Amino acid sequence: MQTSPLEKVHFYVTQEDLKKGIKYNCERCPVARSIKRRLKHKNITYITVTPGLVTVICSDSTVVTNPLSEKVKNFIINFDKMNKHSIKPFRFYLEFNKLSVSELK
Question: Terminus-to-terminus CA distance in the chain, angstroms?
Fold first, then answer.
């Protein structure tokens, strides 16, 4: 079985994401906010982020899931546990199957 090549999609958690992000909220945490902003004009109806996985549901009911790196997992755990003002903005990327990326366009 042949798999499609992966494509990196870059995201940036901003200071505003940190300020407006909600602890323990899979849809409104800083990581979810940054993904929603980056994919704002795409075919997306729902995004949820857990410490291990991001799930994107497209308007045609396609579901795209992606595991999160240790860096992002640790950020989410720390954000939920700590004073959100002590957390810094950061960049991360997700690798999507190229077929999945086309669903996000």
Answer: 26
**48-to-5, 32, 73 alpha-carbon distances in Å:** 24, 6, 14
Phi-psi map region of 20: left, alpha, beta (phi>0 left; psi -120 to 50 alpha) = alpha
Hey, CA dihedral for 105, 21, 31, 80, is it positive or negative? negative
* pTM, 2 dp: 0.83
Within 13 A of 41's CA, how many CA atoms are on the CB side? 0
Residues 38 and 26 sit within 8 Å (Cβ to Cβ)? no
Task: Name residues whose C-beta falls within 8 Å of residue 90's C-beta, 6 or more positions apart in sequence.
Answer: 12, 13, 71, 75
pLDDT, tens only, 12-66 = 999 999 999 999 999 999 999 999 998 877 778 889 998 889 998 888 888 888 8
104 with 21: CB under 8 angstroms?
A: no
Question: Please, which pLDDT band fits residue 2 given cuts at 50, 70 and 90?
Answer: very low
